[in-house]
Amino acid sequence: MPRSFSRRFIQHGLLLCTSAIGTGFLGQYILQKNTLNAYNHPLHKPAVWLDDYPSREAQIDIMSKESEYDIVVIGGGATGCGVAVDAASRGLKVALVEKYDFSSGTSSRSTKLIHGGVRYLQKAILQLDREQYHMVKEALSERGNLLKIAPHLSYPLPIMLPVYKWYLLPYYYAGIKAYDFVSGRQLLRWSYVISKNKALELFPMLKKEKLVGAIVYYDGQHNDARMNIALAFTAAHMGANVANHCAVTEFIHENIQVNNKEGQTETKKIIRGIKCLDRYRNKEFSIRAKCVVNATGPYTDVIRQLDDSSVPKICQPSAGVHIVLPDYYSPNNMGLLDPNTSDGRVIFFLPWQKHTMAGTTDTPCEITDYPSPMAEDVDFILGEIKNYLSSDVEVRRGDLLAAWSGIRPLVLNPNKKDTQSIARNHIIHVSDSGLVTIGGGKWTTYRQMAEETVDRCIQSANLEPKNDCITKGLVLSGGEKWSPTSYIRLVQDYGIETEVAIHLSNTYGDQANKVADLSILTGKRWPVVGKRLHEEFPYIEAEVHYAIKEYARTAVDILARRTRLSFLNVIAADEALPCVIQIMAKELNWNEKKQKEETDRAKTFLLREMGLNLKRDMRRNVPINFTREEMRYYMKHFRQIDVENKGFLTLSDLKRHLQRMKISNSTTDSDISPEELRILMHEVDQNQNGIIETEEFLQLMSAINTGAVSTSHFIKAARIAKIKNNSMVERSGGGV
């Protein structure tokens, strides 16, 4: 026994010493080689900066009438908007079109981190992979730049890596320290080791059994959709013409005569522009350009094959699912990294927008306009969360607030089979016809990708920029005059409540006053202005008006990207939808048919893409499995409401029962409002036929008992207590 212990002690001691020494030498080498310097690129604005920009419809009219652009960009995600910013900052004439909305695809469905990728560095070191190492190094450099040019939208976030086996502590410590060293002078803050007690103090929800300590390191976090929109309108402020909801239908080709290698003349087909459809106005138009950039993320090959149907695919799409849970699942200022899930993937568990976000999965998929989160992916993430949280925290499926899937445009490596081995490197390819394709990459490196893409455009199309790339340190729209205390002026000058003011300041930066100017009186003593779209969230009606000025043309544009309501709470987004439709209808002159179309489209989006269908299925799929005692108990409550013994409950039954309860309890509250009754009915009436059937009632009771539903307005209002189960008694077979 002592000899065995001594042998293990020596082995672990050698591992610790080796890791520490290796980290020291690696760090010294990297620091000598790393010449990154944040201060070489001071913050600045471009020479041309327009105070305002044309309306969306005016932008399209300008694009259709312009004789020729230097560059036209297809795709309004992070990369496409980054290319537009870079090209415009060099004095080139630029246009950009996006099929849906800016950031409507992968760029709004990320993990919300601005990071180099801890797991990529691990693979780079273990596999001696120089390509992955340089990718991480580049990303960490770009991380530092992005945090500086958009300070209102991004910030450093500490992330904890809990350790449950003491001999793994030096291994993880060496890896995280290497991550610090690769950051060079762009390091946010040094990582550090903490004790078990300190880890539990910083992350009280953490599982304490067998915990030996933790490592805390820093990465960046941001509001990805808003960052993307800031890029789009930074380009617009610099004179670029940008428009969303414009689909490319075909390329404009032109045949030219060129000399081949043998000196003979031959005909070559080159791209001279694109034909588009304004999907909002159903109007076709054309844009002529010297160079066309394909920056469509997962749709990279779709656009390439629109130019030439014979070209091989270069993009391997992979779906990543994220879920959102209530804020009590994590501290508001500390994230968590699970470095070794049950299937080898990495899971992040992060505070974001006063909620808790967890993900992601990594599954090969097909390209679709409507990526949907799968129940098995949600269950996987919930299961991994449960492994790291205290037994005091009951991880319930009913706590799921939203879920989404984003399609990553990974670059395929034909020598490796699984998508986890595919680095998010980018590829720039110029076709024979002149189409410049930027594929792959990641959010954090959008600026570097854009710089290289514009360089290639200049080379391939013989463009003449006025200056070299200046996007390092180029402040994005909203960031120039912003400070962490800017929200105070909004409170003092406009009478906006503090929570709303903080949200506006951290979303729009120094442009927040323009949103406040559109705010209407609340009719209350306080706040003076700023009517909320939903009482639980700081989004206000004025943001809908402002979003329309920022080219929002659908209700989904508002719910998903101009606000993040659908990403934070899909039910709250559904409840706010009528208000959004009402404001947009008035601003954009929608008739009743258009309002219904937009309502239906938004509801389908929430169901299919934001996890509302998963929440409903959680209830429907719970078996009604009560003991005889439980069945009698719940049916007694049902019959107390169904006094006419019809076998179902109507709105009148519910209203009468609640009023009777108030009288019997001698309360002096006013009558139940129609809106409150609607919420109660909607919660239980799953098939939306206007009545609560016996099975629907029992389904809700069963869902509450199993945790598939976390809380219920109906049960609270009807004062139906949860009966204590007796596991030994016979249970019913689920019949009604």
UniProtKB/TrEMBL annotation:
The EF-hand domain extends over: 629-664, 672-707
PROSITE patterns on file: EF_HAND_1, EF_HAND_2, FAD_G3PDH_1, FAD_G3PDH_2
- Give the record's GO CC terms: mitochondrion
Q: Which GO terms describe its molecular function?
A: calcium ion binding; glycerol-3-phosphate dehydrogenase (quinone) activity
InterPro entries cross-referenced by the UniProt entry: DAO_C, DAO_C_sf, EF-hand-dom_pair, EF_Hand_1_Ca_BS, EF_hand_dom, FAD-dep_OxRdtase, FAD/NAD-bd_sf, G3P_DH_FAD-dep
Which PANTHER family would you find in this protein's record? GLYCEROL-3-PHOSPHATE DEHYDROGENASE, GLYCEROL-3-PHOSPHATE DEHYDROGENASE, MITOCHONDRIAL
Q: Which cofactor does it need?
A: FAD
One Pfam assignment: EF-hand_7
User: What SUPFAM superfamilies has UniProt attached to this entry?
Assistant: EF-hand (SSF47473), FAD-linked reductases, C-terminal domain (SSF54373), FAD/NAD(P)-binding domain (SSF51905)
As its record notes, the protein acts as a catalyst of: a quinone + sn-glycerol 3-phosphate = dihydroxyacetone phosphate + a quinol
Q: Does the keyword Hydrolase apply?
A: no
Question: Its pathway?
Answer: Polyol metabolism; glycerol degradation
What does the sequence similarity comment in the record state about its family?
Belongs to the FAD-dependent glycerol-3-phosphate dehydrogenase family.
| Enzyme class at the top of the EC tree | oxidoreductase
Superkingdom is Eukaryota
Q: What is this protein called?
A: Glycerol-3-phosphate dehydrogenase
* Keyword tags: Calcium, FAD, Flavoprotein, Metal-binding, Mitochondrion, Oxidoreductase, Repeat, Transit peptide
Could you tell me which species this protein originates from?
Rotaria sordida
